[in-house]
Amino acid sequence: MIHSKIKKGITTAARFQSRQLVTIAIVIATILLSARSSTITMALSLSMAIPSSGKGRVAVVTGASRGIGRGIALELGSAGYTVYCLGRSSRAPETMETKIDFQRPVAEGLDLTVESAAEEITRRGGKGIPIPCDLSKDGVVENILANQIQKTQGGRLDVLVCSAYTTPPTGIRGEFWKQDLEMWDYVNGLGLRQVYAACRAAVPIMIETAKSSKEKGQELSPPPLVCLVSSFGGKSYTFNVAYGVGKAAIDRLSVDMSYQLSKYGVATTTLYPGLVKTEGNMQMEVDGTWDEQSGGLDLSVGESPSFSGKAVVELAALPKTTMMERSGNVEVVAELAKEFDFNDLDGNRPPSIRSLKYLLPNFVFPSIEKELEDGKEIPDWIKNNIPDILLPWSTFSSGPPPEMDGR
Question: Which Gene3D superfamilies is this protein grouped with (predicted)?
Answer without folding.
Answer: NAD(P)-binding Rossmann-like Domain
